[in-house]
Amino acid sequence: MFRCQFNGIKALSRSISFTLRKPAPSTLSRGVLVFPSSINKTVPFGPHSQPKKELKCFFSSTALGSARARFRTTQKEPPPQPPLEPEPAPEYHDPPDLPPNEPKRKEPGSGLVKIFLAITVPILLLSVSGDFVRMTVTREEVCEALGLDPTVRPGPKYYDEYIRRYKPEKVFWLNLSEKIKLNFSFCAHNAVGEGESFRWWTPLTAQFNHGGLLHLFVCYTTLKAFAPVLVQLYGNRVTGTIFVAGGIMAQAFVALFEKSVNPFVAMSQEKILNKVKSGLTKDEESQLRRAISFAMGSSTSLMAMGTICAIVWPAMKLNLMFIPIGIPIRTALGAVVAFDIGGMFYDYGIPIGHSGHIGGAIAGVIMYALWIRKLPTVFQRRIAQAMNGRGINIR
């Protein structure tokens, strides 16, 4: 109920009361009561009035009794807003370079690769030091001093004999090269042969000696392919253990396999010399060469690592030199295994330790079945540590 009193109007002798419907405060900004009249009076707008809200009343002196009230609301229209301009498309910017003080992230497995190079490169240089010494002597000097035919190239033993006789200052490097080869190479005949003194450390040290720069380069690139995968999954310690244990197990397989199929492995040196004097067939020459040859290189360890990578990450692809497409690891590993199985029973004429490669693959399968598959990955260990830090025990 709103009561409006109008005083000072001569035509009215008493107060006039009228009833209005209360408007909703949330929808009205100004109320106007309109009558067809020329008398204008402005009064406040009810109990919820605000300073800027007013009620305008218009009255007619001749039609007060039958006046009809109409109520309307007026609002101030907001000022027109300028049209919104379309936002420009975000521009692509290259990621900012790291600050000079912030170190760059290292590739997983780079530490193991550096340790591998720090050990293998000096051993390789010392191992081939005898070859460098032989290069300082010409063929004419050797043939003239030893009375050999100058038209025929003499073998390494003649160069060594000449150096020991006439170049005593270079004998040290020949002896050092021979000692490195004996202590950093594995020989099946020395391991299981009759009357031989086995150097028990050679299955480990043979993994860090290589036959030349090309052999070392191939093993280095292969290690760079397998090490990041295993380090991301299991960490540096597990990856290093796989490398060392795989090589040792592979050399043990070589000794057992050659002893079972090669009769020269178990013979003593006297029996071998008597057999050579009596004459050898082509197959026997191949067997003798495998029995007394020195195996070296990290390819046995890399075969174990590659086998585990093929099991835990079958989608991995290898980018080989001079091949523009990636080869699935299982396809590449299967081809290498098939080639090595053939080389174990047929002589390709290539100085490759086929039985060592097969031993490395078998070692990888054994290590995965008995050890690796039971280990949590690095990501699983981090999740467990985070959950345990919040008081949630994970079994």
Word description of this protein:
This protein has 395 residues and is of the alpha+beta class. It is built from 15 helices and six strands. The protein has three domains: 60 residues, no CATH class; 76 residues, no CATH class; 198 residues, no CATH class. It has a four-stranded mixed beta sheet with strand order 2-3-1-4, with no helix packed on it. It has a two-stranded antiparallel ribbon with strand order 5-6. Strand 5 and strand 6 form a beta hairpin. The longest helix has 26 residues. The radius of gyration is 48 Å and the shape is elongated.
Question: What is the strand and helix layout of this fold?
Answer:
Layout: E1 31-34, E2 39-44, E3 54-59, E4 70-73, H1 110-127, H2 129-135, H3 139-146, H4 156-166, H5 171-183, H6 188-192, H7 202-205, H8 213-234, H9 236-261, H10 269-278, H11 282-292, H12 299-312, E5 317-318, E6 327-328, H13 329-345, H14 354-370, H15 378-389
Parallel strand pairs: 1-3
Antiparallel strand pairs: 1-4, 2-3, 5-6
Helix pairs in contact: 1-8, 2-5, 8-9, 8-12, 9-12, 9-14, 12-14, 13-14
Give a quick summary of the entry.
The protein has helices at 110-127, 129-135, 139-146, 156-166, 171-183, 188-192, 202-205, 213-234, 236-261, 269-278, 282-292, 299-312, 329-345, 354-370, 378-389; strands at residues 31-34, 39-44, 54-59, 70-73, 317-318, 327-328. The protein is α+β, with helices and mostly antiparallel strands and 395 residues long. The strands form two sheets. A four-stranded mixed sheet has the order 2-3-1-4, with no helix packed on it. A two-stranded antiparallel ribbon has the order 5-6.
